[in-house]
Write a structure and sequence with these properties.
By secondary structure, the protein is an alpha/beta fold. The protein is about 45% helix and about 15% strand. It is built from 14 helices and ten strands. The strands form two sheets. It has a seven-stranded parallel sheet, sandwiched between helices. A three-stranded antiparallel sheet has the order 6-7-8. Helix 1 packs across helix 3, helix 4 crosses helix 14 and helix 5 packs across helix 6. The longest helix is centred in the first third of the chain and has 19 residues. It starts with 19 loop residues before the first helix and ends in a 7-residue tail after the last helix.
Amino acid sequence: MTTASAGEGPRQGVRRQPSAEQLRLLTKVAKLYHEQGVRQPQIAAQLHISQPRVSRLLKQAVVAGIVRTVVIPPSGVHTELENAIEQRYGLREVIVVDASGEDDAHIIPALGAAASVYLETTLTGGDRIGISSWSSTLLATVESMTPRPTQVAEEVVQVLGGVGNPAAQARAARLVGRLADLTGAVPVLLPVPGLVGSVSAKRTLMKDPVVTEVMDAWSRLTLLLVGIGSLEPSPLLKESGNAMTAEDQKVLRDQDAVGDICLRFFDEAGQPVRSELDQRVLGLSAAQVRSDDLRSVGVAGGMRKYAAIRAALLGGWVDVLITDRSVAERLANEHRPTQS
């Protein structure tokens, strides 16, 4: 059997325990380098060994357990909590913001800032982004973003109709247009209501060539950016003219709906709730939102939305979640129901 020379690593996959003298040398080199900040050429000169051997000894010190890497998260970083939620719900990524409570005025800007950093980091070119018009967190996200020096997306496509009152219409167009400007993409607007009065009205609007063109763009999406709504419509949705009537809300409650994404409602297990209202929505279908071909990013927080956020995770509506610490802690500790 051929073995390595003293102080060098084993050859041909054969390993042996370092001798006491080797351990002493490994420890000395490791302390000089890691604790005292002595550079490798200086260590080599001081100990009268070659610099390549110093490098090998430092690697051996790691293998021998003399040097161990310890990552200490700074205050406000919740990596372990993020990992726990990712594993529990099978998510691609979770980002936990160091904000909590019921105060949307505090939570929403923090979520928006985190989501903007996520987009600026992960948009590297070629994406076709779908965005829901009616989300305060998405408005905060876009407001927090800075222009990219190069084009990082091909299209920004509105995935839920936005025409309600004139102010709401302008806000929806501004959201899509601003994100397109920031990413160098082409904006694709959907100039129809998100919720129409009847199924027949929806059928008529879907025949419009402009609407057909936008719907074709939905099939090309690679990234979907959405808020997660609770059953009670947000103030922003109420302002838009797309809010549900009290009768619609009652029907949804009777069917155990707890939340929605793009006005596609789901129950506490994350399963789609089928209703007449669902047939009047002009936007992505539930199947399209949950498509495996999309990187679907949900930005939502606040304990009043907890049931909706948890259901969205259970139902596979998003695979990236950006949320606040209180919601995250409860998600990590909540018992996940056994799948039947």
